[in-house]
Amino acid sequence: MNFPIRLMGGLLLVCVATGALAQQPSTDRKVYCWNDGGRRVCGDALPASAVDAERTEISARSGMATAHVSRALTAEERSAAAAAAQQARLDAEAAALRQRQELAMVESYATEADLRRAYGERIVLVDEALKTSRMGVANLRSSLLSLLRQAGERELAGQAVAKPLADSIRSQHTDLQRQLAILEQQLVEQAALGGDLQAALTRYRELKQSAGAKRD
Predict the structure, then answer these.
(1) Can you list the residues of the chain whose pLDDT is less than 50?
(2) Model pTM?
(3) Which of 54, 12, 55 is nearest to 32 (CA)?
């Protein structure tokens, strides 16, 4: 049964003042208030149309609000909330990983010289990998050019390019593109190593100072 808030308020006051309820249940009854088309409506039961609506729950015994229930989220809002929760979880995991890595860095390297030496070894490895990748790119390019030259000579002679030759050209081109992508990634890593070393040294000094201050 739904009725305007003014009548509900008067009814509650009468009930409280006169003890009109013959028996008080063990659990306090609730009155629900929600907006229906811009109009404030209250009732002792929620209709199906108001189940997902924002509402206030009021104690029928005291007339005091006992809870406020937000409206149900839409599918889009639930999806956005789930995505935000997932991102927050990933951020927390990333922060925990960084903390573990920093702790391992301090424990693994007794001095800055040790840390520099470790980065120097990484730089050497990247440089060697770059040499290998550049050699691979040069070989693949040379092989591809040779195959393309064969195909061009056949076409100039009025002959069709055989399927095995065409397949080899496509395969070599795919391999070359893959190797170029690897080379590009290695160049990015090489460029970042210098900055990574400076950032690691700065953080290393901060952590060392913090550890020293705690011991003091």
Answers:
(1) 1-3, 5-26
(2) 0.45
(3) 55
